[in-house]
Structure formats: C-alpha cells, structure tokens
Design goal:
Elements: H1 7-23, H2 26-35, H3 38-49, H4 69-81, H5 89-102, H6 105-116, E1 122-125, H7 127-130, E2 137-141, E3 144-153, E4 160-164, E5 170-174, E6 180-184, E7 194-203, E8 205-206, H8 215-249, E9 251-252, E10 255-256, H9 261-290, H10 292-320, H11 332-344, H12 349-359
Parallel strand pairs: 1-4
Antiparallel strand pairs: 2-3, 3-7, 4-5, 5-8, 6-7, 9-10
C-alpha cells in the first residue's frame, strides 16, 4: 500500500512549485525584501491565488473546492520550499475553517463566498487564546472590542480581521475601522509580515457558534499548526538539497568537501532526521479530516517535532556552507529565519507539548 500524497495533491504542489520557480526565484525574493518592492510581491500573490489556493478549504456549498487539509499541507510545503513571500496559514487555512465551524448560515454565506471571490482576505489573531501575555488581550462587549492582540498573521492586503479571545469567541472586524491601530512587528523573517493591533471600541461581528462552543478556534489552530509544520518541512527540504549540492561543488585541499566524512555525516543526519517528518505531517493532515479523535494530538506532535527537527537542519545546512552560509550571498538565511519564526507561531514546541500532555491526561 502507498502512503503519501495522492496524484491530485501532488498536482497542486507541483503547480505551486512551477509558478514559484518561474516567478519567485531567490533573486526575486531578495529584490522584494531589499527594495520593499510591493508591486512584484502583489503580482506573485495574485498569481498564487489564480491557482485556486484561496478556495481550497472553503466548502463547495459556498463556492469553494471543499478539499481536505492534506491539499493545504502540500501547498504549504511548496511555499516553504521556495521561501515564497506569501502568507497562507492564516488567511486561507485558519480563516475558512473558523468561519465554516463558527459562523451561522448568514455569516458563512457572507464571508466564505467573499474569500472565494477575492473580495475579502482575513488576517488572524488567535495568540490570546493560545497563551495570554501581560498587557495584551481584549474584551468583546456590546458588539465592540477593546484591547490589544499581538502576532496577528497575514495582515498585509487584508480587508478583515479574525480575533479569538481567551474564552474562544471569534470576532470579525473590518480592518479599516477607524478605531483600530496597526503596528508592524519587526521579526527576522522578512518573507512575511506580523502585526500588533490595538482596538478601542471597534465594531465586531461575533461568530454565532463560538459564543457557546470552542470547537471553531481549536480546530482552526490545529489546522494552522499542521500547515506551519508543512511550511517548515518544505524549507528544511530545500536547505538539505542546497547543502548536498554545495558539498559537491565546494573544494578544499583539492577535494570536494562532500567527500569528507564529517560533511557526509552531517548531510546523512539531516536526511535521516527529515524523512520521518513527511509521514508525520501528512498523517496529521489526514487525521484532521478523517480521524477526529487523533486530530488534536497529531497536530501537536507534527508542529512540535518538525519545529525541533527543522531548527537542527537549518543549523547544519548553514554549517555545511561554512562561512558563506552566514552571508547574504547564499540566501540560506531566508529559510533559516522562516523556520525560526514558524517554530514560535501558534505556540512554541514547549507550549504545544504541554497541550499534548493535557490531551492525554498526563
């Protein structure tokens, strides 16, 4: 029996790879970041959306493709592999799932149809539900919200914002509301943006089903973690490939460094550590739609384990490149930093392992 991506899932992955290889090479990514070239960045985003990425997880009833999370994981793997300057996990994974599970029929028709038609893009701020921070948090009251949310995903070019409070209620806010203030956060990952948002009695539409049920927020976070793990998986794959290729070309003492036993061992260790991560991420994505009893635990395992493995691979791949690996010339740092930020988004490995322990009543 074959365990892996189906032909259809591989087709989506290959299409994203082909587009990014043609339109978002590393040189173009460098140009976007160094020159803050938003025109090229928006062209790439529009091209990716033209592949149908925004419709993947929206149910067919609301105009989407109604596919399962394994398709989204395959796409995310390609985005990580190419360090694409494109935000995916919040707007096109977490948001459709939260709206599908948390909205009433009117809210689903309004918001999900708008995602499919590219009339709305949702930023997602669920950090306060995962782990409260001092001086952050917000309160829903009388259809308004006041307070602050940190590490909001996918704000760039968004029209609306999804936020979840500590109780799991999810609200929708127009991002152009005059009573909110956006502050871009400085992180090492320059391929995507992260924001802090402050609210002062901004109007909010609370998703009806989340007033009494936390299923929408927990399922959305589980999906986001799996997709971020897939992004780190793709980034690690790219780093391993680059390390092996470089070890065959770079010569020291008249020999390719790949012929040295120490370098061979580093590349072999990276490959051995990475290989089980494919099945882990794919199985977690499969469980999300098909084995609900295992879904939460598997999402925790996938995110925490891949975060640790990808961190080690990023370090070793940089070391294989020697001093050049630490320079901007090779571009290794884009993958290295992306992996580092993925590791912390939606919960660090330590936070997520604590959740996994509680799920198992440990």
């Amino acid at each position: 029996m074959y365990f892996g991506l189906s032909e259809e899932q591989q087709f989506f992955k290959d299409n994203v790879n082909k587009f990014l290889n043609d339109h978002a090479s590393l040189d173009i990514v460098k140009k976007i970041i160094d020159n803050n070239d938003l025109d090229i960045k928006n062209e790439i985003a529009n091209g990716i959306l033209n592949l149908g990425i925004n419709s993947l997880l929206v149910p067919e009833k609301y105009g989407g493709l109604g596919l399962d999370l394994l398709f989204a994981a395959a796409v995310s793997q390609s985005l990580g592999e190419n360090v694409a300057p494109f935000s995916f996990a919040g707007s096109y994974v977490m948001a459709p799932i939260a709206l599908s599970l948390g909205g009433n029929e009117d809210q689903k028709n309004k918001y999900l149809n708008s995602i499919v038609n590219n009339k709305m893009k949702f930023a997602v701020g669920f950090s306060e539900y995962i782990a409260a921070r001092n001086n952050f948090g917000f309160l829903f009251k009388n259809n308004t919200v006041s307070g602050k949310s940190i590490f909001v995903l996918d704000v760039e070019n968004s029209t609306h914002l999804l936020i979840a409070d500590e109780a799991g209620q999810i609200g929708v806010i127009n991002i152009n509301d005059k009573n909110i203030k956006l502050t871009e956060l400085t992180t090492v990952d320059k391929t995507r943006t992260y924001f802090e948002i402050q609210f002062e009695k901004a109007l909010v539409d609370i998703l009806e089903e989340t007033k009494s049920n936390i299923n929408a927020v927990t399922r959305s976070i589980d999906a986001g973690r799996i997709v971020l793990a897939a992004d780190s998986l793709g980034a690690s794959e790219a780093l391993l490939t680059k390390a092996v290729e470089y070890s065959k070309e770079r010569k020291q003492f008249g020999r390719a460094i790949g012929s040295f036993q120490a370098v061979k061992h580093m590349c072999a260790e990276m490959a051995a550590d990475l290989e089980p991560c494919y099945s882990l991420v794919w199985h977690a994505a499969h469980c999300f739609d098909n084995i609900p009893d295992e879904s939460r635990l598997m999402s925790c395992h996938a995110k925490s384990h891949v975060s640790d493995v990808s961190k080690v691979i990023a370090k070793k791949a940089t070391e294989v490149h020697g001093g050049m690996g630490f320079t901007d010339l090779m571009g290794i740092h884009y993958w290295f930093k992306r992996i580092g930020v993925n590791r912390q988004n939606l919960g660090s490995p330590e936070t997520i392992r604590e959740e996994a322990a509680k799920i198992q009543n440990l």
